[in-house]
Amino acid sequence: MVLELHVWGPAFSLPSIDPQCLATIAYFSLAVPKDAWVLVASSDPSVSPTNELPALKNGPTWVSQFRNIVDYLRQYSDGAWDLDSNLNALETADNTAFSSFLESRAQPLIDLSLYVSSQNYWQCTSPAYGDLLQWPNQWLLPPRIHSAAKARTAHLGLSALDLDAMEDQRKRDHSAAVAAGKIPANFIQRPRDTVSKLLGRTSHQSQFRLEALTGELFEPLEAMLGEKDHLLTADRPTSLDCLATGYLALALVPELTFPWLRDAMQSKAHGLTTYTQRMCHKCYGTAAVKVADAYPSLSPSPSPSHLPWQTPERARLATVGYTLLNSLADNTPILSSIRAQNRLRQAVESSKADLSDVEREALAKHATGMKKDVLVSVAAAVGGVVALLGYMVQTGFFSPEDEEEYVEEEYEEEPFVIDAGEAPDAFGVMGL
Amino acid sequence: MTSDNHDTPGQAPPTAPVTRARDYFRVPAPIKRVFDQFPLVTYSPNELPQSAWASQHGNRLFVFADPGSARRGRPSFNPQCLKWQAYLKFVGIDFDLVPSTNHASPTGALPFLLPAHPVGGNTPIPSGKLQKWAIEQVHCEEEQQLNLRFEVYASLLDNRLRNAWLYTLYLDAANFNAVARRIYVEPSTTNGLVRAALSAQLQQAARDELLKTAEYIDASALEAGAGEALEALATLLGDDQHFFGRPHPGLFDASVFAYTHLILDERMGWKHNRLGQLLQQHENLVQHRERLLKFF
């Protein structure tokens, strides 16, 4: 049985655009014999029942996420394909801790570099997605990934990297000034921010924050690496090395318009930079990976590749329709929250892990209960509107025989109310 | 406010085409009537609350706690608050606990501290700056600088253990009803509707937080992650009294204690305590928690 590893496709001359996929590919190329697995650049999370990539398919079984895949490989091969088998207790603890550290510190930096920095996103990342996705996913997935990356990094307060957010903020300030009546609307000059002006300010303002963030990531790793060939042990790579390769390759390799992350890495962590290059060559081959490499059966003369690529199945009409329906549902306000509840429920019902039956049943029941909550909130909203209308009828705001009169009155009095009456009064209240 | 305006002289009557165009954009009369009545009354600003806590003159740490245990200095039931409460106790700073909520905090999150002798205005100190303040007060050492592994192992607490905690407390229905509803929701109001809304908000916030890093909330993966994290922490502690072989407990001990104490605390009233089972496998972490509990 050949294992199929489904990943996001190649970009930036790396075999995948996603750090977790890169880490999994590195693990496979180091641990699993080359004839026992194939790499499928399906680039569509809906191929896997968990809606996540990387996903490993072995017959009917699907496993997703780097950690779960590593665990599954260990069980499947009875410990033969396990890079972490020779570690002692302290090294195992370090392996766990540094893995968690990498995932939590490197992910936001990669989000900032590839997605939140507008000029990088629009000039490099977005075109890369355009090359590797098929219709209609190329229109649906990148905006979703983009906004997820923004949400993950919102707490860092670095929205200055994001030109869209800057523009929104400027508009808000502008309309606030108009609303406060400080300046008559006609006199407010539209500040003309050119992109280059914004960039100049961006890189100065955010520089200190980025310095701190990159230092926090690279310094412990550089100290851990020391003079060794690998992060934990001198002689052989571990799963931590694969994870580090995945994340650091995306920091180092892509040619970006605004390469602050690569600059920081090269200036702060020389050892880590050469280590990442060495690991990339070892895991992904020395030649730059092109998008065409991922589809060997489509190209007339497939170039020999370091990785066992297999051409993904072409999307069928049913799949395309399903994708379109799904994204429509995800963008409908009430439906989307019902679907969010389902994500929890499906995860519970499909889990084969060591949850006891009672626990699993309770969780499924809980998720179903949450669905009822959504329906209750819909009912509450409808009830509220009905109550407001009822109140208005009861206090006589709608009185059919007077309707005509009101309209007449409004006709006459509106210019007065707007021009002469309300505005000065409102300013009086605000003390202006 | 409109009564005087009807008689304002000197306004030229609008020309007909303008009025007709405006007609389409006009607010319907009944709705306009409703909004014309606002604001009904403008109240003067509220007085600052005069509670028993305001008369104290020591350092005041604002945490999630019920008033009874706050008066006796018992551990808070919120891991973030407990971490800083324990840290200040360990380094030997005296303070009074004040039960509070997020709405009271200038940053929107608890804990924060009002120092007895404020430096530069009466500014509250948010949790992010508490360590710096404590170092200035008692000249304890900044532990992050002493060991390379501090930040690395702290990420286990801030991610794997915290995610499992969020799941266990907020998304596990039995625990949410037995624990979170009792400690966070019920003290704030007696109104059933508001309680239901607050509960829904809490759970939604936890769910959003977990979905930020994964497409699915996979309970078994979260528990496995927490299990690995506890195992790594137990290995790091080894046979030492405190983390990193220090003679006195410090910030890292406080961070670990904040979770281990609440997981093992019987008064929390857990219904499903999978984290507790995982933690019981590591005898040294359990003893570490018992040693530190003597400070309270």
UniProtKB/TrEMBL annotation, chain A:
Q: Name one GO cellular component term.
A: SAM complex
Q: Which UniProt keywords apply?
A: Membrane, Mitochondrion, Mitochondrion outer membrane, Protein transport, Transport
Domain Mitochondrial outer membrane transport complex Sam37/metaxin N-terminal, first and last residues per copy: 21-145
User: InterPro entries given for it?
Assistant: Metaxin_GST, Mito_Protein_Transport_Metaxin, Sam37/metaxin_N
Q: Where in the cell is it found?
A: Mitochondrion outer membrane
Answer whether the UniProt record assigns the keyword Mitochondrion to this protein: yes
Q: Record keywords: Nucleotidyltransferase included?
A: no
Per the UniProt record, one Pfam family is Tom37
Q: Name one GO biological process term.
A: protein transport
Q: Classify the main location.
A: mitochondrion
Q: Which residues form the Metaxin glutathione S-transferase domain?
A: 218-279
This protein is called Tom37 C-terminal domain-domain-containing protein
Which organism is the protein's source?
Aspergillus taichungensis
From TrEMBL, chain B:
Occurrences of domain Metaxin glutathione S-transferase (ranges) = 227-292
Q: Where is the Thioredoxin-like fold domain?
A: 79-175
BP terms from Gene Ontology = mitochondrion organization
One GO term describing the cellular component:
SAM complex
Map out region (Disordered) in residue numbers.
1-21
Q: Which PANTHER family match?
A: METAXIN RELATED, OUTER MEMBRANE PROTEIN (SAM35), PUTATIVE (AFU_ORTHOLOGUE AFUA_1G13180)-RELATED
Q: What is this protein called?
A: Mitochondrial outer membrane protein
Species the sequence originates in: Aspergillus taichungensis
